[in-house]
Write a structure and sequence with these properties.
Layout lengths: L3 H5 L3 H18 L4 H13 L1 H8 L8 E8 L3 E11 L7 E6 L5 H20 L19
Antiparallel strand pairs: 1-2, 2-3
Helix pairs in contact: 2-4, 3-4
């Protein structure tokens, strides 16, 4: 049975192997994490592909790179990503995605942003009453 995520990721095999390797890294960092252990157990029981990927014993820290996806509306898009650790917040990360200006992917993202804004504007109800002005509640010292 083919799942829709297999169509979304350009390299499905790499995506699932990388996910298993990241999970192995996290399991090693926190071996007493019962929720992660339970998830790994469930995936191992239900997915022959996960069992295969887990048995590879790969460990991966995802820091930077390029990902390619097949978007259902615009087709192939490529994004660069970077992962940043939050100082003083163990385990908390910020992941940024970007596309270089002037690329085919940048044009596709601009189209999707415009499309989303148009769709949102069409579905947002317009109030029949004018909006009330809000007065500032405090003033800066002069």
């Amino acid at each position: 049975m083919r799942h829709h995520t297999q169509d979304y990721y350009v390299d499905w095999t790499l995506a699932r192997r990388t996910t298993a390797a990241i999970m192995r890294l996290e399991a090693g960092r926190d071996p007493l994490n019962t929720q992660l252990t339970a998830l790994i157990g469930e995936l191992s029981t239900r997915s022959p592909l996960f069992r295969q990927d887990w048995a590879r014993q790969d460990v991966h820290q995802h820091r930077t790179g390029v990902k390619a996806f097949r978007h259902p509306e615009v087709g192939l898009v490529e994004v660069a990503f970077d992962v940043f650790e939050m100082p003083g917040e163990a385990g908390l990360q910020i992941v940024t995605y970007s596309v270089p200006p002037g690329t085919d992917s940048a044009d596709k993202f601009a189209f999707l942003a415009s499309w989303a804004a148009t769709t949102h504007a069409e579905t947002t109800p317009v109030s029949a009453e004018p909006s009330e002005a809000v007065e500032p509640t405090s003033r800066m010292a002069e």
